[in-house]
Design brief:
Elements (H helix, E strand, L loop, with lengths): L2 H17 L2 E6 L5 H13 L2 E4 L3 H8 L15 E6 L4 H12 L4 E7 L2 E3 L1 H8 L4 H42 L1
Antiparallel strand pairs: 1-3, 1-4, 2-3, 4-5
Helix pairs in contact: 1-3, 4-5
Length: 171
């Protein structure tokens, strides 16, 4: 890799560290190519990506970035999982780590906040953006359905009373 390619990699990594909602650093020593492809596919499906880069270049790219706290995790065979959604990469990384013991989460960063492995796990348990939007929409729609039910309830009560009265008269 010549100097121009290294500069390009540093620039790409800098963009990743600056624009990503979350970056997860993990050790992947001993993983097969098929396992890595599975991880990449799962991450892509969730809206994230996986990147393997030289630790030295990643540390250079981290200088002055919000995620600079993860520089200490960049030793040995490390892989970066990242996404714009602050939860997606952490969810996929945590789920993959549970099924593959060769993939070990070292930590990560969520903006300026450094995350240890427990922090990544806590972020992974948070609801995603889509889940939050769905729950907000449900909360907004609930009062309207309650009002509609309350308005319709007296009419059904009156109808029930009338049918009971008719049954008594017929008997």
């Amino acid at each position: 890799m010549d100097r121009a390619q290294k500069e390009q990699v540093v620039e790409e990594l800098g963009q990743i560290f600056e624009s990503s909602g979350v970056v997860v650093v993990a050790r992947y020593e001993g993983m097969t190519v098929a396992e890595m492809q599975t991880l990449r596919a799962q991450m892509r499906e969730a809206g994230g990506a996986v990147r393997v880069a030289k630790n030295r270049l990643a540390k250079i790219a981290l200088e002055g970035k919000p995620a600079a706290s993860i520089a200490d995790y960049l030793t040995g065979m490390t892989v970066l999982a990242y996404s714009d959604d602050p939860v997606a990469a952490a969810k996929v990384a945590d789920a993959f780590a549970r099924t593959n013991d060769k993939y070990v989460i070292l930590g990560g960063a969520m903006g300026d906040t450094a995350l240890d492995p427990a922090g990544v796990k806590a972020v992974a348990q948070m609801p995603s953006r889509e889940e939050l939007i769905a729950s907000i929409v449900a909360c907004i729609g609930a009062p309207a359905s309650n009002i509609a039910g309350a308005i319709g309830a007296p009419a059904s009560n009156i109808a029930g009373i009338l049918s009971t009265l008719e049954e008594r008269e017929a008997a």
